[in-house]
Each structure stands twice: as C-alpha cells, then as structure tokens.
From TrEMBL:
5-phospho-alpha-D-ribose 1-diphosphate binds at residues 114-115, 118, 120, 141-149. This is Orotate phosphoribosyltransferase. Keywords: Glycosyltransferase, Magnesium, Pyrimidine biosynthesis, Transferase. Its cofactor is Mg(2+). Transmembrane segments: none annotated. It comes from Fischerella thermalis JSC-11.
Length: 206
C-alpha cells in the first residue's frame, strides 16, 4: 500500500505503512489513550457503566481512521459489495473503509443509514450509491453493547432488498451483543474486546 501525501511536520505516520499486526497494536493504544474513560456513565442503551468508550475520538483521528480502514477492509469477506452503518457512530468508519478500498484497488462503496427517514426529497433511510437487489453488505459499528444499533442497520438494509448477514465492530463491550447476533443468525466479529482495551489501558498507565 502506498499513499503519497505531504505534510510540513515530520512525524511517525504509522498508519500508512505498518503491517496489520503492528497496525492493530497501534490502534489499540490509540483507543486506550483517546477513547477509553473510567467513571460513572449511562450508555445509549440506558445501562449504567463504570467506563465509557468514545469511539469518535479514534474514528475521526487521521491515523485512527486510516488504521481502521485498513484493518476492517482486511476482514471483509471477498464477496462484500458495500459496507454500511447506522449514523452517527458508523459514518467515519464506513467512509474510511471505502476510501482505503480505492487505494487497494478493491472498490467498496459506503452506505449511511439514517435513524429516521429523511423528511424531504426521496425520504430515504439509506444514503449512498444504489446497488443491485441482493447486494451483500457488511454492517460496521464502533462499539457494540446490546447489539441493537447495528441490528437496526441490518433491518433497514434487508427492507431495501439487500443481503446483510454480518456485523463487524471495532469494540465488543461483551455485554450480550455477540450472543444476540448469534441468536438471530448474524455473523459477528470484533477487532477488540473490552478486555483487550482494559488490559492495555492498565499497562500504559504503569
């Protein structure tokens, strides 16, 4: 993979040329340094939590976005025709994968799925290129807790006559999401578990 870019600051832009194992380790560190917080929080699911992962601190980071695009592209099945996700958390993720796919000569369009139908124009739930009926689409997510957010994306895609049988998340909080996806027949994969992040977080603090 070769990216040609100029920057006035000479830094270690590891996301460009690192191999995938190194890339994963660097991305894990970025999640620990920027996204992971401990305290008292209430999740979007309504559940209380002693920690919070603000995925957008990484997905909107230049090196984080590139690393995510490269890693997730490598995990997509060969027959993937597009990636999609529920706005807002998945927007930078699907965009990163789509951009990286062009550099890798494997063009993967990105679709963004609205939580509510657009109130004007086509009144569509799904934004992005029109694909043939039955197109195989992988749903991407930043953090999975109960699995409901990505499931909404799956349901919207299926209602539009697309095939959606797989979910890939950057982080699995291990609070029932994986089990839920299995129960409804979806394949699920996560780049990191919460155990991975908490273990590395403590290592970095020592």
């Amino acid at each position: 993979m070769t990216y040609q870019a100029q920057t006035p600051i000479h830094t270690d832009i590891w996301a460009v040329n690192a191999d995938l194992p190194t890339l994963r380790n660097k991305l894990l560190d970025l999640f620990c340094q920027l996204a992971y917080q401990e305290g008292d929080f209430v999740l979007s699911s309504g559940q209380p939590s002693s920690y919070y992962i603000n995925g957008k601190q990484v997905t909107l980071h230049p090196q984080g976005a590139l690393a995510i695009g490269r890693i997730l592209l490598s995990l997509l099945p060969p027959d993937t025709q597009a990636v999609a996700g529920l706005t807002l958390g998945a927007d930078p993720i699907v965009s990163a994968v789509s951009v990286v796919s062009a550099y890798e000569h494997r063009l993967i369009p990105a679709l963004i799925i609205r939580k509510e139908a657009k109130g004007h124009g086509t009144k569509a739930y799904i934004e992005g290129p029109n694909l043939p009926a039955g197109a195989n689409i992988v749903v991407l997510e930043d953090v999975v807790t109960t699995g409901q957010s990505a499931m909404k994306a799956v349901e919207r895609l299926r209602a539009a006559d697309y095939t959606a049988n797989q979910v890939i998340s950057l982080v699995d909080r291990q609070q029932g999401g994986a089990e839920y996806y299995k129960s409804v027949g979806l394949n699920f994969q996560a780049v990191f578990t919460i155990e991975d992040i908490q273990k590395r977080y403590r290592e970095l603090r020592n």
